[in-house]
């Protein structure tokens, strides 16, 4: 069962109130087939704990890794994942679509 937006935002608030640094990842665009729609969220704390979903599988792991960097540097990132010949063996979407995910630190 996927977490609701309310669950995800409540967890972000809980982590912030506990003194943890937090980032939120949001699907901002999709093209073709994509596992999660625009507006889907994933919240990540400084320890790598997360709640929500922006895609699943390897993409989710890559977003968590990038979020840890965003937490450390405080610089937001726009990430893009898709399937292309040159990236077929790297992180990508097996469904053949493309997604863009914006990751920012929550203050």
Could you describe the 3D structure shown?
- The chain is of the alpha+beta class.
- It has one domain.
- Helix content is about 30%, strand content about 30%.
- The protein contains 2 helices and 5 strands.
- It has a 5-stranded antiparallel beta sheet with strand order 3-2-1-5-4, sandwiched between helices.
- Strand 2 and strand 3 form a beta hairpin.
- The longest helix has 17 residues.
- The protein is globular.
- The protein starts with a helix and ends with a strand.
List keywords for this structure.
107 residues; alpha+beta; 5-stranded antiparallel beta sheet; 2 helices; 5 strands; 31% strand
Q: How is the largest sheet built, in terms of strand order?
A: 3-2-1-5-4
Based on CA inertia axes, which overall geometry fits?
globular
What is the helix/strand order?
HEEEHEE
Percent of residues in helices = 25-40%
What distance lies between the first and last C-alpha atoms, to the nearest angstrom?
28 Å
Give the number of helices.
2
Number of strand segments: 5
Low-pLDDT runs of 5+ residues are 85-89
Q: What number of structural domains do the residues give?
A: 1
